[in-house]
Each structure stands twice: as C-alpha cells, then as structure tokens.
Design brief:
Helix content: over 70%
Number of helices: 19
Radius of gyration: 25 Å
Distance between the termini: 78 Å
Oligomer: single chain
C-alpha cells in the first residue's frame, strides 16, 4: 500500500505514509521512505529529515538516500537537522547537503566546523564545503587542515582538492608529511587535482626526506597517469621536456622504479621507450657520481 501511494498518491498521502517511518519493521520504514521521496513535497522532506535521528543506522542511511532524491525541497529540513538533530542525524544532514551542492548551506556547515565535538561532524562539514565548491570557504578549510583530529585534516585536504585553488598548495604540501597515512593520501591526491602547479608540487615531494612521503607522491603520480604522460613528453622541446625528465629522474632517485621498468618493457613506441631507458640510466649514473 505504501509503495503504491508513493506512485499514485498526492500530498494527502504524506501523513499516513510518514507514520510508517516509526514502524518496528525496518523494511516497511524503507518502503515508506521511498514513497515519500517520490511524492517529494516539503512535508515529505520534513518527515524524512526527522527520521535521520532514528536509532537504526540502516534506517538513517536510507532516509539520507531518499532526501538526496528529493533534492532542493529537502534543504530546509536538512538545515534544521544539521542545527538541532542528534549527532548521527547531523552527520548525515551535512553529508546530504554536500552531495546536493547546496550553496546556502555554507554558513551552517562553517558553524559545524567550529564546534569542538564531535570531530566526525567537523570532518563531514569540511567535505561538504569542498563538494559545494565555494572559494569563499577556503580560509575555513585551510584552518580545518590544522585540526587536532586527523579525520578533519584528511577531509579538509580532500575538500581543498575539490575546490582546486592553487593558493592552497603550501597547505596541502604540509599535509603530505602528516603523521596519519590517510591525511597524506588525501593531500597527495588533492595536489594532483590542482593542474600543472599541483602536479609540479607533487613531483617535488619525490625529493622529500620522509620515505613515506616520497612513496605516496610516486604512487599518486602513477595512479593519475601523470607519470605516463611525463614519459611520453621526455623528448619534448623546452620546459615541457625538461620538467618531464626532472620528474622521472626524481622517481628513480626515490626508488620508485618498478612501474618505470614495466613501462620501459611494454611501451609500444620505440622512441618513447628509448627515451625512458636513457633518462633512467642517466638518473642512476648521476646518483652514483654523487
């Protein structure tokens, strides 16, 4: 009955369906949530947002999923839950607002980032701001990158990469030597999102003193296809070729040669393959001389 009311019922069906969100049967609550999302009125969104505070994690996740389906109509109830809901409800409200790219949620999310507890909410608020992508939030996110809780630093790094402003490169470089692996990973990937300037900064980390930083930089360069592109540009004229050669030499010095060796054996272009082998050989010989 609830399923069919979602398809054929109008606003007058919201009340009866919403009452099912409190039913003891979790499957029935899920069906009711889908039905409300199909009706999509403000009242339906309000009922779903209130259920973000449910004790069941599975129910909360289903409510969040259906609030995303409703879209902009759900913004008001989500903001209310973000401000006054239970900790789990507030966390999901922040996530959905970010997924919906709701610009008007910026002030509430910045306020959540200033709270002392819980750190998970601060982390989710940082990520949501990154998804929204407002450059005005950069100072808030740069500050969050120094948060005492590592999940906040990690998601602040991801958020900075989403906004893609090159002025945040120094902050991201600092995070690549963070004591937490997850923070280093997100910061390296964020640098790769910042275009040529970020890629150069990431390549510069191949010369870092910390071995884990070097390894993470090399892995990210490989994952994003930046290393392969550099290999193909080794014999390019001017600055492009020199930058490519400098990156490959740095990778060799950093010990990240397994991937390069595989490329050297499998590249279909003989000229590119020869250029890579030559550059690797020069890097090794230069290392022995020093």
């Amino acid at each position: 009955a609830a399923e069919n009311l979602g398809y054929f019922g109008g606003p007058e069906a919201v009340g009866p369906i919403a009452r099912l969100l409190q039913d003891r049967d979790e499957t029935l609550r899920a069906v009711a949530a889908r039905a409300l999302a199909r009706i999509g009125t403000p009242e339906a969104a309000e009922a779903l947002a209130q259920t973000l505070n449910d004790l069941s994690e599975l129910t909360r996740l289903r409510m969040a999923e259906n609030l995303e389906r409703i879209g902009p109509v759900a913004v008001g109830p989500l903001l209310d839950t973000l401000g006054r809901g239970t900790p789990p409800g507030r966390l999901l409200a922040a996530r959905v607002l970010g997924n919906l790219r709701v610009l008007e949620a910026g002030p509430a999310l910045r306020e959540a980032l200033r709270e002392e507890e819980p750190p998970d909410l601060r982390a989710q608020a940082a990520l949501a701001l990154g998804k929204i992508g407002n450059p005005d939030d950069l100072p808030t996110l740069v500050e969050a990158a120094s948060d005492e809780a590592w999940p906040v630093r990690a998601l602040a790094a991801s958020a900075l990469g989403m906004i893609g402003e090159v002025s945040t490169i120094p902050t991201l470089q600092r995070l690549t030597v963070d004591r937490e692996w997850w923070v280093r990973l997100n910061a390296s990937r964020a640098l790769a999102n910042l275009g040529p300037a970020g890629e150069r900064a990431l390549a510069g980390l191949l010369e870092a003193e910390d071995r884990y930083t070097r390894d993470r930089a090399a892995a990210t360069l490989q994952e994003r296809g930046i290393t392969r592109r550099a290999v193909e540009e080794l014999d390019a004229p001017g600055e492009k070729g020199e930058s490519a050669r400098a990156m490959i030499r740095a990778m060799v010095r950093a010990g990240a040669v397994r991937y390069l060796g595989r490329l050297a054996r499998t590249l279909p272009d003989g000229g590119v393959r020869e250029a890579l082998e030559r550059t690797m050989r020069e890097a090794r010989e230069g290392g022995r001389e020093s």
